[in-house]
Design brief:
The complex is a heterodimer of chains A (419) and B (195).
Chain A: H1 11-35, H2 42-79, H3 89-96, H4 99-115, H5 127-132, H6 134-138, H7 145-175, H8 181-214, H9 227-252, H10 261-292, H11 295-305, E1 306-307, E2 310-311, H12 315-332, H13 336-339, H14 342-368, H15 376-400, H16 411-415
Antiparallel strand pairs in A: 1-2
Helix pairs in contact in A: 1-2, 1-15, 2-3, 2-4, 2-8, 2-9, 2-14, 2-15, 3-15, 4-7, 7-8, 8-9, 9-10, 9-14, 10-12, 12-14
Chain B: E1 3-11, H1 14-26, E2 30-35, H2 43-47, H3 54-80, H4 93-119, E3 126-127, E4 140-145, H5 152-161, E5 165-173, E6 177-178, E7 186-187, E8 190-191
Antiparallel strand pairs in B: 1-4, 1-5, 2-4, 3-6, 7-8
Classes of the chains: A mainly alpha (419), B alpha+beta (195).
Chain lengths: 419, 195
Amino acid sequence: MSTVEKFIPAKKYNTIAYVLMGVGLIAAIALYIATHGAAANEEELHRNHARFWASLLQNSVYFLLVVNAAMFFMCATTLAWGGWQIGFSRVTEAVSSAVPVIGVIAAVILLAIVFGDNHVIYHWTDTEHVAHDKVLNFKKGFLNKGFYTAVTLGTVILWSFLGWKMRQRSRSLDTNPPETVETRKKFIWDNTVMSALYIVVFALTIMSSLPWLWLMSIDAHWFSTMYSWYTFASTFVAGIALITLYVVFLKNNGLLPAVNDEHLHDLGKFMFAFSIFWTYLWFSQFMLIWYSNQPEETIYFVNRIGNAGNPGHYAGIFWTMLVINFVGPVLIFMSRDSKRNYTIVTFVSVLILFGHWLDFYQMVFPAISPNKVPAILYDMGIGLFFVGLIMLLVGRTLSRYPLVVKNHPFAKESVIHHT
Amino acid sequence: MNVKKFVVGNFYEEAVLFPAVTKVRRAGYKIHDVYTPFPIHGLDKVMGLKDTDLHIAGFIYGITGTATAVGFITWMLAYDWPINFGGKPYFSLPAWIPIMFELTVLFAAVGMVLTFCWLCQLAPFVKKDHFNLRSTDDTFTMAIECTDKTNEAEAIAFLQSVGAQDVEIQHREADWWIGRYDRETVRFGKKVPQI
């Protein structure tokens, strides 16, 4: 078993990444032209502009949270003293290395929306409006530009810094392996402390407050305490799918010698379990609102799926994403053999990544374009930009460092891993 | 009764057991079973055991549970005794999903436990013969079934050559029975005291 192998991206790999980014840029420009043309009145013009920015918001936030989920996977498994993931931990690290770049893009887009003079997306930024709105006036302590900016910047900086720190710790093993039992113990302990720190940051951001600000405040009057967990579950399962895709890709290139069907099986189990977890949270949010039937709460679902005998404009997208994200993974991944089959695992991973993208789509757009579904192909095109960007960044990081962390104290656990 | 003749050997190390199982299988002997005090990862693969179908049974039980819940609640709340809860439709699926989920889990769990017991022939009063009681404590016991063509002396010599200890010929009941263990059973080379 060779342990010095590195991933060298084929020319085709980078070409595909650049082509995808090009398609994304073209889609963004096309959408800009389509939405910034003449409009019947000023309100429609504002709505058109908002539709452009909402597309950027949805895509950048979704892909930022997906790559950041790799960070969470890394820290959660480290904190649990897991050993099985060491075989492909460089893949997880490479995926998480996209956080700073996409984080900056997302922060720029979000702050541009908040500080722009278009208040369609975040109508709590309109001071005139808030002064006359009892509910938004009450929420002013939380929904204001200063707090939003501080949380957004703080989050992106902390995620980037702590992620860099974790990656540095792992990379230090290549040049400076711990020789004695004592130094190995110390390495594991320091890793544990570091990832515990990250988990705290994670809990304070994506698991509690961040989706409220970034996504839920688009429907500023509406609120749900489950929302952040629901968003987290969505991105975590998509993040695992992304890691799995890279593991399969590298295995197909004859790399990652320590990874076998057992590891793939465990990744499949993660996707299976967290698809159910996502549905559990989705349903908990839905059922409580459906059951108590309070108008200020049900409005969220009326905008999406409509009410009895009167289907909403987003009903199709809504039910499609529920089928893709729940029924698909659960039925396909139920059997043991399917979790060990490269083709099926790849298929479900792509399905999950697309399904949760669709989930984010129906989170963002119904409040901005309530009367018709915007042309979704533009948004998919812009999504391709981020796919290309992730491919480029992950490929670059993968090619820089050895793919096997052979000096990690738990490396053997990954090699002999057996489910 | 189905008493058969076995060549039984004891192993003290996993590192000896694994290659021994491979060699014994390759030599063409029929391994009746390998008894270990704890589950050993990978032993099933080395022995060539096929995957269990328990999970398929579990899926069927789960679906049965879901169907029972949907059917029963629908019959109760939509047909037999409809009650208006806060203006909700009689057939209000979201409210039933927790019960559907719970009955799915209940049926799958109970069904699978019982099926597992049945597959492993475990039940109250059901007894099975032991080859070596130390396989419940600290050694791994391998039993090779003797057929008409087995040369016993050769099998014993072969088992010893792959690292087995205390190799001997035993006549044992291969099936289960209801009742109690024979009072004359010899444990650790001593007669079992009368209970």
